[in-house]
Specification:
Layout: E1 6-15, E2 18-28, E3 33-37, H1 44-51, E4 59-64, E5 67-69, H2 74-79, E6 82-85, H3 97-101, H4 115-134, H5 150-164, E7 168-172, H6 180-195, E8 199-203, H7 207-213, E9 216-221, E10 224-230, H8 236-244, H9 248-252
Parallel strand pairs: 3-8, 3-9, 6-7, 7-8
Antiparallel strand pairs: 1-2, 1-4, 4-5, 9-10
The protein binds adenosine-5'-triphosphate and magnesium ion.
The site of magnesium ion has 4 residues, from helix 1.
């Protein structure tokens, strides 16, 4: 058994009286896709924000490649190879698609005099390639993101995380606003990310999507881990039972 890439131990996060996370343990192994599921308010986005440095937990430990880490910001998480697509999207509406894809990591050219020219061309080619693979039907990477539809914007955020993730890509409801064809594009892209050896955390309410692409399913209920299942051995009713807290087989027996 290989060692986990990312481990959370005893993660607590309270918002006033709300126990968003109440002692959660979570492991992510290299090269696997884990589905993170649970009802509205179960704590999924809070857990994503803890893993991506957007929220500091009140208590608990994060281990990355076996070493304790403190993630004070998404930039720190990115620095160790963790990229995130947030549920509340983090794109800059007044910048164009290309600028959003390369925000904070502009490609630098070989020498000072042709740097600007090379950068622009390399960036445009890369952006066009990622966007084309997502099949979102953008006319141009020069369009300001604020003028795109919600689904197209979401695809830009997904393309950005997938392009830059070096070890872990975390996606909070990446297909929630997408049509059938666009969802398919994102799911196929996630499978390709896995082929590159990265680990993926996928938050989704869409159980058919979760069953199609994950290796394991981690269920949160009211801020606690309700159970972890190996996807190909699991049945939808088991997952639903863990999400709702109603045990299907027990109810029948
Ligand atoms: N910034 C915040 N301030 C106060 N309460 C918060 C905050 N963020 C989350 N919560 C609360 O923590 C709990 C968990 O929220 P979270 O967003 O993690 O749920 P979720 O599982 O992602 O739900 P959904 O499926 O609706 O996206 C909820 O009760 C929510 O109201
Ligand atoms: Mg959420």
């Amino acid at each position: 058994m290989t060692a986990p890439l990312l481990s959370l131990r005893g993660i607590l996060k309270h918002y006033g009286p709300v126990h968003a996370l109440d002692g959660v343990d979570f492991d992510l192994f290299p090269g696997e896709i884990v589905g993170l599921v649970g009802d509205n308010g179960a704590g999924k986005s809070t857990l994503v924000k803890v893993m991506s440095g957007a929220t500091e937990p009140d208590a608990g430990t994060i281990l990355f490649e076996g070493k304790p880490v403190v993630l004070r910001s998404p930039q720190e998480a990115r620095g160790i190879g963790i990229e995130t697509v947030y549920q509340d999207l983090a794109v800059v509406p007044w910048l164009d698609v290309e600028a959003n894809l390369f925000l904070g990591r502009e490609i630098t050219g070989a020498s000072w005099w042709n740097r600007w020219f090379l950068n622009k061309n390399a960036m445009r080619r890369e952006a066009a390639r990622h966007i084309a693979s997502l099949q979102v039907g953008l006319k141009s990477v020069r369009q300001p993101v604020g003028l795109l539809s919600g689904g197209q914007r979401q695809s830009v955020a997904v393309a950005r995380a997938i392009s830059w993730g070096r070890k872990v890509v975390i996606m909070d409801e990446p297909t929630a606003a997408l049509g059938v064809r666009e969802s398919r594009g994102v799911l196929d892209l996630i499978k390709r990310v896995k082929e590159r050896g990265l680990a993926v955390v996928l938050v989704s309410h869409n159980l058919p999507h979760v069953f199609e692409i994950t290796d394991r399913i981690f269920v949160l209920r009211q801020g606690r881990a309700a159970g972890t299942l190996v996807t190909h051995e699991a049945h939808v009713s088991e997952v639903v039972g863990l999400i709702t807290g109603v045990r299907v087989s027990a109810a029948v027996a």
